[in-house]
Amino acid sequence: MIRVFSCFIALLSLCWAASAQNPTSDPATGSDATTVPAGVTSTVSPEVAQFQKIEDNWSDAVNRHDQYGLELVLSPLFVDIAANGDVTTRNQQVALVLSGEDKSLYFTQKVITVRMLGDIAVANGTYTLHHKVNSAEVDEKGVFTHVFERSHGGWLCINSQRTVLTKDAGGKQKKSTATETPFHIPLFSRGDKGPQ
Hints:
Blueprint: H1 2-21, H2 46-63, H3 67-71, E1 74-81, E2 87-89, H4 90-99, E3 106-117, E4 120-133, E5 136-151, E6 154-164
Parallel strand pairs: 1-6
Antiparallel strand pairs: 1-2, 3-4, 4-5, 5-6
């Protein structure tokens, strides 16, 4: 009798341990925990929609030269690293928007992913910036990473990094080929010289 009871307890413990290690759904969100990695959202998630709205407010503030709208999105601790390498603060960004020297300026942003890390969120996406360089108007397309901090019930951007997508001479995006290597490892990569 004791053996049967012990086997029953062992079997029950195994079933409990197996169900605890492989949950089929998260009761808090109702989503399947096995299909979405922790902290990563899909493009239809409420987080992406929420941060797209914030990015739209940011773009609208830049396009309308709206100081107050920009201050509602950017943290006082904000640091921006532009695609050309320029580093600016929130006050410098507001001053650029208020100067309004470039009348052709038009800015859009599209959020692709959002990772929630407690009171920090990281949004990645694409952007298009129509502006003047010297006397010519150009369309700059690229990708961004924005880091947001939860503040006073909302989200403020504390860091922005932009990277321009490169184009070849024909105007198409440059695609890497199999012969290109990102860095040189003397013993393992192909080079101009033969074996020595």
